[in-house]
Structures are given as structure tokens and as C-alpha cells.
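Weekly modeling sync, notes
Attendees: S.R. (lead), two postdocs, one rotation student

Agenda item 3: backlog of single-chain predictions. S.R. asked that every request posted to the team notebook include the full sequence so nobody has to chase files. The rotation student volunteered to paste the first one in as an example of the format we agreed on. Action items at the bottom.

Example entry:
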Amino acid sequence: MICLKYLLFTTCGTLLMMVPSSIAFSNGHIYVDQNFDESAIADSLRYFIDESKELSIDDVLSVEKDWQVHEGQSLFFKPTVAHHWISFTIYNTNNWSNQLFLNIAYAHIADYQMYLIYDDGSRVSLPRQGDNYPYSERLISHPHFVHSITLESSQTVRVILMFDQEGQDLQLPIFLSSRKHFFEKEQQTSLMIGFCLGLCTIIIIGLLSLYHLYRTNYILLQVITSISSVFYVMAEEGYGFAYFWSDYPKMNGISRPLFLAVVAIMSLLFTFQLLGIKDGVHKKYYKAVLCYIGVYLVYMLLVHPFFLLPINNENSIEAYITIFLLMTLILFVLNLAICMYYAIKFHNPDAKMLSAIFALLVVALSMRTLSFHGLSASHFLISHTGLFTLSLQTVLIGIYLFKKSYQIIRENQLIKLRIAHERQIASDTIIDSLHNERERISMDIHDSLTSLVTAAKMNIESLQEKYANLKDDRQYHVSLNLLKDISQEMRTISHNLMPKTLKAFGLIDELSKRINLIEANHHLQFHLEVFGFEHRLPEKIEIELYQITMELIDNAVKYAAADHFLIQLTRYEDELIVIYEDDGAGFDINQIPSDSNGIVNIKNRIKWLHGEIDIDSAVGIGTTITLNIPI
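Predicted structure, as returned to the notebook:
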């Protein structure tokens, strides 16, 4: 049960255990010479356990024979309702004074007091410290518990520490360091923690941006998981108490299990959302997991860590914590099992990724647990396993989600391109059908209706030979003129629908021809400017541009009362720019009726050509219309 506790609480690597650079102790004494950098205290101390919790410093000094010599490189006490006393002696062998730093490299000691007994018999009792006291009462502001000890030349001091962990297990990675080594190590640790937390912050900001874009639930769940991981790391390392809840010591007992629970629950829900288990064939298992999470949350509220029930005491606290950790471990194991099941059973790439990450975390945490109990070597990375593993989890899952989102974006772009291509084909088909139908109607009018009208006109004219008095009949001549007008109008309509010269000679020649005819019958003067037309445009563009031009010229003649009309066509490699400009009456572009067929038809034609139209006009200053059409 104790191992289970460490397997979870070391998730965030709270122990700053490093390999000592100088082992300078002998026979229970630590000798400080000129080459001294750092020494772990575990191999050079004695300890005494007071299960009555009533003995004073004088009492424990009077029972020296009952003190035991500690063996091993790790100092660890099982959960016991007792005061744990430890003692070691420091001897300064130098001919000058030394400032040393005693670092209890663990951020969660409930209550302790330190005593210094010098070789001249003087004794110093330092104020009680620990998680039960406000951060402002610490002698040195530091996430861990640090004390400064100054020794004069050849001076000896005995250090005695009394710990009260209130029934919980007690892990004591204690180091004695020179001033230089202590600050070098602090700088290294601060840079490492700052880098990891900064990297996690960047990933979290990126995930928030992704969620803002896509509103995907699994991204939001991972954001919550990552933020909770960061706060859990800060709580474990002691930075949460130092910077966030300094005046609320009770938060030290709540923060770690609370953030750990949020990480466990949100990670599991993230897995369910990412793998689609919620809506899949295993929906009933999803509901069962939700029920378990409900029981888990009720336990947290009633028992550990909130203790809404009045059952919190030193004799039972370890059992409550163990149950909590077992329930938390079930969530983590369940998460890994689900990922591995989907990876093996369904070859799900998301499940394979999560399985690899969670398996890596399990290996890292196992190495850290073995290292703490002295079963494997310890070094800087191992001692900060929790920080590295949760940072690694946040970064790897974040990068994977970025990659997955990028793939989704690419797939969506390909879908949009495919839809656009299909729409282009459909649009081209419609335009081709319209052109074919227009050409057919034009031919029918020209070849059939016009011929019938001409035949009718000839038959009516032949009546003059039979009825001589028709020569002076006004109604007869009006009818003949109407037939002539009908025949001419049908020829014009036929020509406008599909000019034969347009298909034969191209847009520029047909526009020149039409402009000359209009100038001969109206006062409007045209200016046709053409640039870059070494070759003809695609047929569909020529036909649509011709229809647009005729529509605009008709509007200028009928409504604008313009004197000059400019048509400028400029062809580039992949774009055609057409400018129509007149000096007529103009109009207010905001007052165009929604049912204005002319403008609507022009915009529809431009839309079919995948072009853009810009209309610039105002009452009294004329109109300028610019078309941008891709070729």
C-alpha cells in the first residue's frame, strides 16, 4: 500500500534528490573541508522515534542509548503516529568560517523543529516550521525547507530535527551544501522548472487557440488536464504554497490530491472523447466509468481530501489516503487499458499514441519509485520525474493534437477543393448548356421565325397585284412596316443571343462591330482599349463578357444619358481585368433595388466565371465598373 502511494504521489517528482558531489562524512560526522560541495545526510545520522509525542529535546538527549544508527542512502519512515527525531554532527575542518545550507528537499512536511547544539554547550532552538504554518513564517523563503548554518573555524555543531508528519509516511531527502553549490543547484533547478512550465504554458495557449477554432470537446478536456498538471506540479514542488495560497496552509493538504484527481478524471474523459467511446459500441462501459467517477468524487468530498465527515485523525489518515490513491490508480490503469485495447483490437492510431505516452509515464514513475527506495541509481532527471513526465505528457499530447488538427484542416481543404471542383464542373456544364440553348434559339429564330415573317411579308406585298387600291391603303402599309420591324427585331435578338461573328472572329472584333453600329444610331461615343490580346480568350468567357458588355451599354443608352463610354480590357497571364466607365447620371449603389435584373444578371455571370465585380458610382459623377476574372 505504501508503494502504491509513492507510485502516484511521485507523479510530479517532488523530491529534489541529487547524487552528492562530495561524500564527506565518517562515523556519524560530516566533515567540511575546502573541497566540500554537498553531502546527503542519510548515511551520517542517528534517529529516535517517540511514539508518545510528549518527549522534549532534553528528554530525547537523556536517552542517547536508545538512538539508532540509520543505514542506507534514503531516509524514509513508515506511517506512524509519532515524533521522529534525527541527529547528525557537522565539523568545520577549515581555518575560516563557512556558511552552509541545510535543504530538506521535500515540500510537504507537516510540522518540524530544528535545534543546534554547538561544541561550547550553547543551544539554539529555531521556530517550528512546516505546511501547517503560513509561508510568511519561514526563515528562508523557499519552496522547500532550507536553513542557513554558519560555522566558525574548527567549530562543531550537532543538528537535531524533530518531525511530526501527523500519521503519514515521512520521506526526508536532506542535503548539506556549500553556499556556492547551493545557489548553483538552485539556478539549475529554477531554469529547468521554468523551461518545463513555460513549454507547457505555450502548449496550453496553443490548445486554447485550437479549441477556439474548432470547439472540439477532447481539446477542451486536454486543456483542463494540462492546466491541472501544471498546478499539480507546482503544488508538489512547493511553488503553489509559495506563490498562490501562502496564507492558507490547509490548501497544502487539499491541493495535491485535488489536482491529481482532476488530471486522472480529465485524462480518462479525454481518452473517451478522442477515441469516440462515448457514442460507440461500448457506450455502456462509458456510463459505468461515469458512475465510478461519481463515487470517486463523493469519496473526495466526504473523506479525503475535503473531510466533510468528521473522521480525520492521525490514526486513520494513512488508510484514507491509501484508499484515495488506489481509486486514483484505478482511473490511470483503466485509461491505459482502454488505450491498449483500442490500439490492439481496432488499430486506432489515437489509441496507439496514448498507449505509448501513458506506458512511458508508467516506466518513468516506476524508475522514480525504485530510486527513492534505493533500488536503483538516482540523478537529476530521476529526482524530477514528476515534473518531466507530466510536462512530457502535456507536450506530446499537445503536439499530437496540433498534428491531428493540421491533418483535419488538410482533409477539410481537400474536401472543399473537391466540392469546389465539382461545383466548377457543374457550373461549366450549366454555362455550356445555356450557351448551347442560346445558340439553338438564335438559329431557330434566324432560320425559322425570320423566314416565316419574310414569307408573310412577301405574301402581303403580292396582294397589291390583285387589289390595286391597297397601294393607297394606310393600314396595309402599316402592316408591312410592322412585319419589317418584326423581322429586324428577330435578327437583332438572334444576333444578341449568339452572334455568329463572335464565335468566328472573337470578342474584340464583335465588340468593335457592335460599337460602330450603336455609334451610328446614338449620340454615345465609345472608347475601346485592348491590351495583351495576342490570343483569344476561352469561349465561355468571351460569350459572358459580350453579354455583360451589351447589358451595360444598354443601361448607359437608356438610363445614364452618357456622352462617353470607355471599355478597357487588359489581359494578364492568369487574369483578365475589364473596366467600364461612363460620364452619365450615375446612381446610388446603396439604393439599387433587390429585384434589379440587370445588376443581378451581371453579378451572376461574374459568379459563374469565379470573378469579382466592383461598382463605383454616385449621382451626377458617372459610373465605373471593374471586373476581375481568372483565366
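Discussion: group reviewed the output briefly. Residues 385-466 form the longest helix (82 residues).
Action items: rotation student to repeat for the remaining queue; S.R. to check formatting next week.
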